């Protein structure tokens, strides 16, 4: 099965669809990368705050315990 057997109108429609999907995928990929980076930073920030809060709790308990 080669390209010669595929009628031109099917082929052109397929190519148009492929181009559309490719451009959509590029946009999605760029957006996903930006969003992923943002989410990662947000997660790290939340984790850091949780860790700081965790240690702060112990520090406060230690100060009050004295």
Categorize the overall geometry: rod-shaped
Strand content: under 5%
| Regions with little confidence, pLDDT below 50 for 5+ residues | none
Distance between the termini: 84 Å
Largest sheet: none
Number of strands: 0
Total of helices: 1
Question: Structural class given helices, strands, pairing?
Answer: mainly alpha
Write down the Rg.
27 Å
Average pLDDT number: 77
Oligomer: single chain
Transmembrane segments: 44-64
Keywords: Membrane, Transmembrane, Transmembrane helix
Characterise the protein shown here.
It is a single chain. The mean pLDDT is 77. By secondary structure, the protein is mainly α. It has one domain. The chain is rod-shaped and about 85 Å long. The termini are far apart. It contains 1 helix and no strands. The chain crosses the membrane at residues 44-64. Keywords: Membrane, Transmembrane, Transmembrane helix.
Describe this protein with a few key phrases.
66 residues; rod-shaped; membrane; 88% helix; transmembrane; mainly alpha
Brief characterization of the structure:
The chain is mainly α and 66 residues long. It has one helix spanning 8-65. The protein has one domain (3-65).
Task: Please give the structural blueprint.
Elements: H1 8-65
